[in-house]
Design brief:
Blueprint (H helix, E strand, L loop, with lengths): L1 E5 L8 H11 L3 E5 L11 H14 L3 E6 L10 H13 L3 E3 L9 H22 L2 E5 L10 H8 L7 E6 H7 L3 H7 L4 E6 L1 E7 L2 E7 L8 H10 L5 E4 L8 H19 L1
Parallel strand pairs: 1-2, 1-10, 2-3, 3-4, 4-5, 5-6, 6-7, 7-10
Antiparallel strand pairs: 8-9
Length: 264
């Protein structure tokens, strides 16, 4: 496995500081957020993303993928083209695109999502950068493997892939080995989250917690990835609170150790 760290929680760090974070935690690179307010944005990506990738490679680290704004769903948009072309120039192999929202009727949303995914497949074929869709629980299309398989049917897995999220499928999917098996042809990236249900007043909410503190069955995740012969990029999302940067580094190190135990 190749482990990277999602930079969503490291927004204030410079490229140099991100490299230091990886070296101090032993993580091999980053899942690089290219979003407004981050060191690299959709507006400046063509220039600054190749520069960032060069700096990571010089440090013997990688940018394993780019995560775009969650609203990036139009493959014909200027932002989509800019990011994919920047990734091509930077030799970054994959892009996490945005989410297609759900509202009735389902068949219309499915038709729209498939049309947009076909457009991303064409953009991916042109740039040689794979477009990946993330399984996110809640009111989004493709929020589990069954729903995402319907969206991906007949699309070339060389160009469009699945970013399978351990936490979100634990909340919103079936057994993880079944989830992975359903989309194994497209399985390209794995997102690491653990989840815990929390009672808040009269309702329940879901919190992201460090690996091992929630409901994800990590031994089963390991078996699921072994079943699929997956040895690709694993993104540690770290979307929980930390006291400060030192505490986040401590938690990242602990998660890496746990993941290497269960996933290899």
């Amino acid at each position: 496995m190749r482990y990277v760290y999602f930079t969503k929680t490291l927004q204030k760090l410079s490229i140099t500081q991100l490299i230091e974070f990886c070296k101090e935690t032993g993580i091999g690179g980053v899942d690089f957020a290219v979003r407004p307010g981050f060191p690299v944005t959709p507006d400046n990506a063509k220039k600054t993303l190749p520069e960032a990738a060069k700096a990571f490679r010089a440090a013997k680290l990688e940018i394993g993928l780019v995560s775009t704004p969650t609203s990036l769903t139009d493959p014909d948009s200027a932002a989509a083209k800019a990011i994919f072309e920047a990734c091509q120039a930077a030799e970054i192999p994959a892009v996490k695109i945005g989410y297609f929202g759900y509202k009735p009727p389902y068949e219309e949303r499915l038709k729209e999502a498939r049309k947009h995914l076909a457009g991303f497949a064409a953009l991916a074929a042109k740039t040689k950068v794979k477009a990946c869709y993330h399984t996110h629980s809640g009111s989004t299309m493709g929020n589990n493997a069954a729903g995402l398989r319907a969206m991906l049917a007949d699309l070339d897995p060389h160009h469009v892939g699945v970013f399978l999220d351990t936490g979100h499928v634990a909340i919103n999917g079936g057994p993880v080995r079944m989830e992975a098996d359903m989309i194994r042809a497209w399985l390209s990236l794995v997102a690491i989250k653990d989840m815990a249900w929390t009672k808040r007043g009269a309702s329940w909410a879901v919190d992201v917690v460090p690996v091992g503190d929630g409901i994800v069955r990590w031994a089963e995740v390991g078996k699921a990835l072994a079943d699929c012969k997956f040895k690709g990029t694993v993104s540690i999302h770290g979307e929980y609170d930390a006291k400060d940067l030192d505490d986040r580094k401590r938690l990242a190190k602990a998660e890496l150790v746990a993941l290497q135990k269960y996933l290899g």
